[in-house]
């Protein structure tokens, strides 16, 4: 999701509910500050993380926000949905403003979902070339076989998209339980990969994205802010 930028006069007009022409004397008088410095250029571009003040009134605080949420099943990984609850619906209403998902989980999957208002950060995480591994715990209908490990490692042909998936890691934990590691996240990818081995996913739970591991103290539907170290190290 791209980070949005606005002209300063457009932003001020929206925030102060005045016409852009009425802003000219206000700017000329040095009554507007951006990141602590007087701003007089009405065409200046500002982003969501610039601190904007007018007559000491804070209009934009420039706060970057990063959250982890333990997604339950039956919740849509979207910001709005006409039929089902979304991950944003799980947050207090006052905490939802400006947030979007940095990667999705399908309707019946559970586990770690990241939310942020930082478009550049979320885009880095979502690009396969970023090299960020996502870790999932999966249970399946039939016993797992050593050849399944080789099939995941080789990549699989997805006919609909006309592509071969990147190599993935399959770690067998028990007869019908495994961990899967992916660097991409195509539509229902893990379910489709197991289907190609003749198996069916029963449960799918995302445990980690990069170095960020789902906090075990979070009950389904709960969230917390990422630590500064988690934000910095996740895509390092």
From TrEMBL:
CDD domains: PseudoU_synth_RsuA (cd02553), S4 (cd00165). One of its GO terms (molecular function) is RNA binding. It comes from the Bacteria. It catalyses: uridine(516) in 16S rRNA = pseudouridine(516) in 16S rRNA. GO terms for biological process: enzyme-directed rRNA pseudouridine synthesis. Its EC number is 5.4.99.-. Pfam families: PseudoU_synth_2 (PF00849), S4 (PF01479). It is an enzyme of class 5 (isomerase). SUPFAM superfamilies: Alpha-L RNA-binding motif, Pseudouridine synthase. InterPro entries: PsdUridine_s_RsuA/RluB/E/F_cat, PsdUridine_synth_cat_dom_sf, PsdUridine_synth_RsuA/RluA, PsdUridine_synth_RsuA/RluB/E/F, PsdUridine_synth_RsuA/RluB_CS, RsuA_PseudoU_synthase, S4_RNA-bd, S4_RNA-bd_sf. Responsible for synthesis of pseudouridine from uracil-516 in 16S ribosomal RNA. Keywords: Isomerase, RNA-binding. Residues 6-63 form the RNA-binding S4 domain. This is Pseudouridine synthase. Belongs to the pseudouridine synthase RsuA family.
